[in-house]
Structure formats: structure tokens, C-alpha cells
Design goal:
about 140 residues; mainly alpha; two-stranded antiparallel sheet
């Protein structure tokens, strides 16, 4: 429970915020090489998101300075590292129909959005650690 509650709080925050953004604001990628939304492997997507939130939880706990501010900083760094690496590698290494799978503008939007989402998620993780969830 010591680390589970901060992680779960951060994960729920991330899933809600990113769900609103990707399902309601950002249009689904138009590339013919992207799996249609109704065929997306949601389990793999949630597991990947859990890994990124887990990295943020680990970083917040490792830093030991539990606060909204520090949680947000560590969450943003985790989001930039994990999501930035993924997006830039996909952009650099994979092509489709003679071009990149995603245009560079979509890559930039996704990275920036995930840094913000992970900062919010990290802040909730930091708040949970600060309120004593890590002491039990």
C-alpha cells in the first residue's frame, strides 16, 4: 500500500486526462498505417501508460521530497523521457506509404500533451506521498 496508492492515484489521473484529450480533443491519426481505433489493443495501451506512471512514481519516491511541485516536475520529466523517446523513435524509424507514420506536428503535440498530463499525474503522486500514503 505504501507505493500502490500514489501510483494508482497518478494512473487514474493520467487515464482520465489523456482519455478526455485523445477521445474528445485531438483527432485520431489519419495515417493508413495506424490501427483503427476500434481495433486498438487497449490492454497494451493501458500497460504502456502504467509503465510511464510507474516511472514517475519511482522518481517521486526516489527524490524523497514529496510535494505537488516536485511531483509535477518528476512527472513531467518521466513524460518527456518516456513519451518523447517513443514518439521520436517511431517518427525516425518507421515509414508508411513513402512518408513518416505521423507528421512532425502530431509528434510535437503528443509529446507536449503527455508532458502536461504526466506533470498533473506526478503532482497527484507527490500529493499522495506527502499526505502520508507512503508511511503505511
Amino acid at each position: 500500500m505504501k507505493h500502490l496508492l500514489p501510483f494508482l492515484t497518478g494512473f487514474v489521473a493520467f487515464v482520465i486526462i489523456s482519455g478526455v484529450f485523445y477521445m474528445g480533443i485531438m483527432p485520431y491519426p489519419t495515417s493508413s498505417c495506424v490501427v483503427p481505433e476500434d481495433q486498438m489493443n487497449m490492454g497494451a495501451m493501458f500497460f504502456g501508460n502504467a509503465l510511464m506512471v510507474g516511472l514517475a512514481s519511482y522518481m517521486v519516491n526516489l527524490a524523497g521530497d514529496f510535494s505537488l511541485r516536485n511531483g509535477a516536475i518528476h512527472g513531467a520529466v518521466a513524460g518527456l523521457t518516456a513519451n518523447g523517446l517513443l514518439n521520436i523513435f517511431v517518427y525516425a524509424f518507421f515509414t508508411c506509404d513513402g512518408g513518416h507514420i505521423f507528421p512532425l506536428s502530431e509528434v510535437a503535440i503528443d509529446i507536449i500533451a503527455n508532458v502536461i498530463f504526466m506533470a498533473i499525474s506526478g503532482a497527484t503522486i507527490g500529493a499522495m506521498y506527502a499526505r502520508g500514503a507512503a508511511k503505511s
